[in-house]
Amino acid sequence: MGVNALATITYVHAGRRRGASVSFSVSTFLQTFDLVIDILRTAFLAAAVGVAGLCMVEWAVRTRRMHPFSALARTSRRVLAPLMKPVERRVLSAGGNPASSPWWTLIALVVVGIIVLQAMEFLRDQLANAYTAFGAGPRGVMHMVVRWTFLVFYIALLVRVISSWVGANQFRGFVRWAYVITEPLLAPVRRILPAMGMIDFSPLIAYFVLRVIESLLLKWL
Questions:
Q1: Which of 31, 54, 111, 178 is an S-S bond match for 159, by CB 3.0 to 4.6 Å?
Q2: What's the pTM value of the predicted model, to 2 decimals?
Q3: Per-domain boundaries in the chain
Q4: What is the largest CA-CA distance in the chain?
Q5: Alpha-carbon distance 112 to 210, whole Å?
């Protein structure tokens, strides 16, 4: 066997070892990421249960079912105050009953926990997809870029719809970007669709159009 053949074999084996090492590293990272998500899920669940108990105490105090200066009432007030103050301001500005603020605080905590966990799982899936795409070569990378590009549009549409439901200011920084991205898509749809009262179906139509275009592009690439 010649020197060139030996060098070629050695290079191939070294490449395989590097590929196996990278695969093992990515697999280990994803497993660690899954472990972190599981820990966060347990922590959020425990926090929700604890806050639910404190919210019940605070609600009982506010509705005069419990003495406001008892040890348990003072503890719940001290723990919940940082969480409940912004929620209570929101309830009062909306004309709601301040006695319901503890329950709205609990709902807000649960929603935040769900959003954080979903964001972590989404990030984990995208990292796994990116690794798979790069392993598939240029075509896999192009598919990934197309999917991520359309994903930005889908998220922008979702942010726009939710902001319209809650009455958020469309010129705020955390909402404005969604309007900037989606308005060129929605304006032509609104011109075609007939007026339907207060309901705007243009985001739904735009979503389905984007899904069709994405599917066609992925088949063509």
A1: 178
A2: 0.64
A3: 1-135, 138-221
A4: 92
A5: 29
For 69, 116, 180, 211, the CA distances from 177, given in Å and listed in that order, are: 48, 21, 5, 21
Q: Are 87 and 104 in contact (CB under 8 A)?
A: yes
Structure tokens at 149: 């590009």
8 A C-beta contact, residue 33 and residue 124:
yes
DSSP string across 115-147: HHHHHHHHHHHHHHHHHHHHHT-HHHHHHHHHH
Which secondary-structure segment (H or E) carries 178?
helix 173-192
Buried b (16+ CB within 10 A) or exposed e, 80-108: beebbeebbeebeeeeeeeebbbbbbbeb
Amino acid at 102: P
Q: Closest by alpha carbon to 171, among 179, 182, 159?
A: 179
How far is 185 from 178, CA to CA, in rounded Å? 11
Retrieve residue 119's tokens: 């964001």
Which residue type, as a one-letter code, is found at position 89?
Answer: R
The whole-angstrom distance between residue 96's C-alpha and the CA centroid of its chain comes to 28
Q: pLDDT truncated to tens, each residue of the chain (221 aa)?
A: 544 443 444 434 444 444 445 555 777 888 888 899 999 999 999 988 998 998 898 888 888 888 888 888 888 888 888 888 888 888 888 788 888 888 888 888 888 888 888 888 888 888 888 888 877 788 888 888 888 899 899 888 988 888 887 777 777 777 888 888 989 888 888 888 766 666 778 888 888 999 999 999 888 87
